[in-house]
Design brief:
By secondary structure, this protein is an alpha/beta fold. It has a single domain (4-255), classed as TIM Barrel. It is 36% helix and 13% strand. The protein contains 10 helices and 8 strands. Strands 1-2-3-4-5-6-7-8 form an 8-stranded parallel barrel, surrounded by 4 helices. Helix 1 (30-41) runs parallel beside helix 2, helix 3 (91-99) runs parallel beside helix 5 and helix 5 (115-125) runs parallel beside helix 6 (142-154). It binds phosphoenolpyruvate and manganese (II) ion.
Length: 263
């Protein structure tokens, strides 16, 4: 593997351990974004997730509000002093996100599976050093996950993290995406310092399981969590069943036992 094993996890130390990224699956309106950002920021969360281009499995579902969200994000960022993370799935998304001062980018599971797209994204990132989080591919293929991370690393990005969001399976399961915990552990064996963030929302697909999956990840020494939070989860335009309210987030945080960092 050309060098990705040298990825350095120092950069994540600027964030609290464990790091929490919380916010809506999708930005739906300015009002929704300001409302949830205010509530989540009031709990001390410093990075808000906000999907604006949504990769939906089937057509005719809500595909995100697109670039008009940038103005809303700017206003939420300055009012509540938080950073914003968004998903990029093409070189054009990267260009627009960089132009609009998004703080952190992530590659979704449907992007990580495609080396051509990942390479185009990596090329568009050349010359910047924005933090980039790479979700695992939808299928349980460790090499594909490592390959996507390498392409981003080889483009000169030093602030890289991995998000574990589980793996799709045809088998009936309590999980929306089965966690297969060995795969992220194996990723860490290959790239020891890569920060590992668990996404219990997409692993579970169900808000009742968010706490248990989060606790397991923290017990395993994960560096952070990415959790979907919405002002009115049942009315969310995407991933309604797995989103939680800011009050539920606060309750989960109160009950999570945080392992003392070993390094
Ligand atoms: C998301 O983060 O809302 C998303 C689409 O996730 P994933 O790429 O993990 O399916
Ligand atoms: Mn989602």
């Amino acid at each position: 593997m050309p060098g990705a094993e040298k990825i350095n996890g120092e950069w994540i130390k600027r964030y609290k351990n464990p790091w929490l990224i919380a916010g809506p699956c999708s930005v739906e309106s300015e009002e929704q974004l300001l409302d949830i950002t205010e509530k989540v920021a009031a709990q001390g969360v410093k990075v808000i997730r906000a999907g604006i281009w949504k990769p939906r499995t089937r057509p005719n579902s809500f595909e995100g509000v697109g670039a008009k969200a940038f103005d809303w994000i700017k206003s939420a960022r300055s009012q509540f002093q938080v950073q914003f993370a968004t998903e990029v799935a093409s070189a054009q998304h990267v260009e627009q996100a960089l132009k609009n001062d998004i703080d952190i980018l992530w590659l979704g599971a449907r992007t990580t599976v495609n080396p051509f797209t990942v390479q185009e994204i990596a090329d568009a990132l050349q010359g910047t050093d924005i933090p980039v989080l790479v979700k695992n591919p939808v299928n349980p293929d460790l090499a594909l996950w490592i390959g996507a991370i390498e392409r981003i690393y080889n483009a000169g990005i030093s602030k890289i993290g991995a998000i574990h969001r589980g793996f799709s399976s045809f088998r009936k399961s309590q999980f929306r995406n089965e966690p297969v915990w060995q795969i992220p552990l194996e990723l860490k064996r290959n790239i020891p310092e890569i920060p590992l963030i668990c996404d219990p929302s997409h692993i579970s697909g169900n808000r009742d399981m968010i706490f248990d999956i989060s606790q397991k990840a923290l017990d395993m020494g994960y560096n952070g969590l990415m959790i979907e939070v919405h002002p009115d989860p049942d009315k969310a335009l995407s991933d309604a069943q797995q989103q939680i309210t800011s009050d539920q987030l606060s309750e989960i945080r109160k009950n999570l036992k945080i392992r003392k960092a070993t390094s």
